[in-house]
Specification:
Nuclear Transport Factor 2, Chain: A, 4 helices, 5 strands, globular
Length: about 170
Amino acid sequence: MIAVRYVSCLFVCALLSSPAVAGIWALKTTEVPQATYPLNVDPVDFEAILKTYNTYMSAFAESDFHTMADQMDFKSKSLTWSNRLDAIDNFSFIKDHILPDYSHSDAFDISFISPKVGGYVLFIQRIDKNASDDRISSAWSFYEFIEVDNNWKISNVMTIPSLRSPF
C-alpha cells in the first residue's frame, strides 16, 4: 500500500513538472458554465469533467455511495480501490466515522491541469464543513480523469491528508 502511494506521489510530481504539463488553469469554481474556459481544452470535455466531479462530491454529501462509484474507472491501475464494493465500503466508512457531520466543501484553490498525454487532473484545496458551516476538515485533493466509453471517469483520487478506512 505504501508503494502505491509513493508511486502515485511520484506520478503527480512528474505530472506537475513543467515539461510534462501542457497547461494549468486556475478556476474560481467547479460549477458550469464557467465565465472563461481554459485555452486548448475542449469545452465539452471540460464541462463533462466538472460535472463528474460535482456529481461525485454531491453524492458524498447525500451518502449516495453507489453514485460516487459510478463516477470511477475501476479498470484504472492508479485507483486505490480494485472494485466497486471496496470503494463503496471506503466511502461509507469515511462518511460515517471520519466526516460524520459532512454537509459540503468550500473549494478555495482550484486548478485544472491538462497533461500533454492522457486525461486531465483537477487539483482542489478544500475545507469540509458541516450543516452549521463549521469546519470539520481540510484537504488538498487531486482527481485524475480519463475518458471511458465517451464518459469522463475518475481514474485516481489522492487526498492529503489521506482519508481511508482502516479496512
